[in-house]
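re the bet — no i am not wrong, look at it urself. input seq straight from the record:
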Amino acid sequence: MKILHTSDWHLGKYLDKYSRIEEQEKFIYELENICNSEKIDLIIIAGDIYDTTNPPILAEKLFFKAMKRLSLNGKRPIIIVSGNHDSASKLISPSPLAYEFGIIIQGMLNTVANVAKYENFEITKSGEGFFEIKINDEKAVFLTLPYITEKNINEVIFKSDEEIDMQKDFSDKIKSIFNDLSKNYGEDTINIIVTHLFVKGGIETDSERKIQSIGGTYAIDPRIFPKNTQYVALGHLHRCQQVKQADCLAYYSGSPIRYSKSEIGYEKVVLVLDIKPNQEPILKKVPLTDYKPIDVFKCDNYQQALQFCESVSDKDSYAFIEILTQDFITGEQIRTLRETKKYIVSIVLKSYMEEKVIYETEEEKSILEQFKSFYTYKKGKDAPNEILDMFLNILDEIETEEVKIDETT
């Protein structure tokens, strides 16, 4: 069975004021070509389909268009789990129609896939958090765990009030879920986990919204995955990377597009698995086009910055400019730079003597970074960790309430 693993599309995302939707459309077309040329039997999308819980209409249209084309109108199954940027209820809302195209959207822990027969494959059995698919006389069992918070996991899975259950740490709870679900693996099946988690040791970028809780990060021990799992398809981190301490083959596919300057130099790929029961998977990285590069330029004066802008004025790229200078730079000069080079994301002026930021244009910041900046502005000092944890917990509560509101409307 040939499986393609991708994640973290972040449809609807912006870089400062610049929409990435055109690049995302190009990615979908390239992905379609890769699936056809590699003769992919099944596609996995491991979360963060959208960039926000309420994505723009253009992002939703692109997602629906992509699902129809990639599924070959129901001939190729697609497995999707929700990520921490997604609204689970919004993601699963088109499920009745999606199932007609063989698209299995696992938005919540207790989601049960529909048993059904399609032209080229069959969902033969299912339950909460797992299902079995038969393709070309081969069977594959998928254990699915969408993004989950401590509160959700206690409400849905660990309903006991016993103190021993309440004191289990988050990683142990996830391990318990997978151990229980792995009982559905068969001796003659391909065994795969699809999930959206942050695993300890993973290399982060500036683009991910931190998965955190009160007291620390929801960081999962890499050894929690059952040993009889052949592959773990992970979403969340934007750099393609292997989880090296896991007891089975586990990979983040990474995002298909560079969503911040911190991702410069990282390869952008989709992962193709050639996998059979009871055998080591053969994994191949298929590189993606850099649809609109990000350039970072550091210089010592305004003239150098202007020369840089002139040299890339015809290049379809984003630019981050940092000027280390003692000279005063006027607003008119800043406007000239922006008129010379389109898609300048930020211009940062630093004092040559102190390397202190004295001017900075707005660029895209995560919700957490915006809160940090606001706290520093109001208090004159950095926000302590306990305040950041409290803010993230409130953010999780708000997103949970949004999901409940969506479900009742």
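see?? The radius of gyration is 23 Å. told u. also Residues 222 and 300 are 45 Å apart (CA to CA). so pay up
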